[in-house]
Structures are given as C-alpha cells and as structure tokens.
Design a protein that fits this description.
- Helix 3 packs across helix 5 and helix 3 runs parallel beside helix 6.
- The protein has two domains: about 55 residues, no CATH class; about 120 residues, Arc Repressor Mutant, subunit A (Orthogonal Bundle).
- It contains nine helices and two strands; from the N terminus they run H-E-E-H-H-H-H-H-H-H-H.
- The relative contact order is 0.07.
- It is mainly alpha-helical and about 190 residues long.
- It has a two-stranded antiparallel ribbon.
- Strand 1 and strand 2 form a beta hairpin.
- About 65% of the residues lie in helices and about 5% in strands.
Length: about 190
C-alpha cells in the first residue's frame, strides 16, 4: 500500500512542478528534464510535507534500492519466495553481492539477512491475520524449509509462536466486538 501512495505523491509533486518523468518507482524517479538546484530544493521540500525524503547521494540511493527489491519480493510478489536473495539482488542491482552486503551493514547497522528475516516475519504476520492460508502453505510461500523452521524464526523475532500470535489476534477481535456489551457503558457525546 505504501508503494502505491509513494508513487501517487511523487507523480503529483512532479506534475505540479511542471516536471516530466518517464517512470516513478519506490525510491526512484526518472525526470526527463535537467533540474535546477532551486527545483531540486523545492522538490525536496514538497516531499518532506508528505514524510518522504529526497536522496541524492549514490550510496543512500543504492541502500534504498536494496530495501525496495527485498520489500517487493517479500510483500508484493504472488509467487513463492526465491531461494537465493543474494543472486537476485546482484542481478537486479548490477553490483557484487559482497559489496551490497558490506555497504548495507555499514550504513544500516544490520545485515541484509536480518532485514529480509524481519520483512518475512512481517509478511507471515499479515498472512496469519488474513487467515486464508494454513501454516504449511505460508511456510512454502515464504520459502521456509519446514513449518518448524518458520515457527522457530517467528518465535525468535516476535517472542511468540505463530499459533499464539494468531490466537492473540482472535482474542483482540472478540474483545473489540464486545465493547458494546460493557455494563453501564455510555459512550461520550
């Protein structure tokens, strides 16, 4: 969802500024004109109003591209995850994986692997809440070797088992449904 909003905001800002673009993707826009320093500063200011940041240093842009590839693969791909993120990142970004991994760790203070795991677990949480797939299907989709491997990693990251997480969500929904049943409860006007 964030990806779509980002694109809409950036396209709108560019259009209002009278700038033409060939494409806008998460973390990247190809502007057809040469922008003046004043236009670049105006663009930066407009993006900040929406909580977005203009990145113009090459390393920051590359870090954002790494994140974008991972987020796209984990959150927006309908296909089961690929086995080898390192090969995929290298092919998509046209850099040696060792360079990407070292740069990412240096700038982000964490490894690409930990970033991937965090996003995989967030995606698993979403899938558990949607309740459309069972744990075996989720494990396959997210490319875990087994349900046990998924459960172990899920617990390591969240402190909960997937089934306990799912149960907490059910309890929360049940509690929200019963709000009107509280004795002597009168909503404020």
């Amino acid at each position: 969802m964030f990806c779509i909003r980002y694109k809409i905001v950036v396209k709108d800002v560019l259009t209002r500024m009278g700038l033409h673009y060939s494409f806008v993707e998460l973390g990247e826009a190809d502007i057809l004109e040469t922008i003046t320093p004043e236009q670049q500063e105006q663009f930066r200011t407009e993006l900040l109003k929406f909580g977005l940041e203009l990145m113009d240093d090459k390393k920051s842009v590359l870090i954002q591209k790494i994140k974008n590839v991972i987020i796209e693969l984990v959150h927006y791909s309908e296909e089961p995850l690929i086995v080898n993120f390192s090969v995929n990142l290298s092919e998509k970004l046209k850099y040696d994986y060792t360079y990407l991994a070292n740069l990412f760790s240096l700038v982000q203070g964490t490894t690409i692997e930990k970033f991937i795991i965090a996003h995989k677990i967030e995606r698993v949480k979403e899938l558990l809440v949607y309740n459309e797939l069972n744990l075996t299907e989720i494990a396959y989709m997210m490319h875990y070797s087994s349900v046990a491997h998924l459960s172990t990693q899920f617990k390591k990251v969240t402190g909960l088992t997937p089934s306990h997480f799912k149960q907490l969500k059910k309890q929360r929904r049940t509690m929200l449904e019963n709000i009107g049943d509280i004795p002597n409860y009168k909503p404020e006007s």
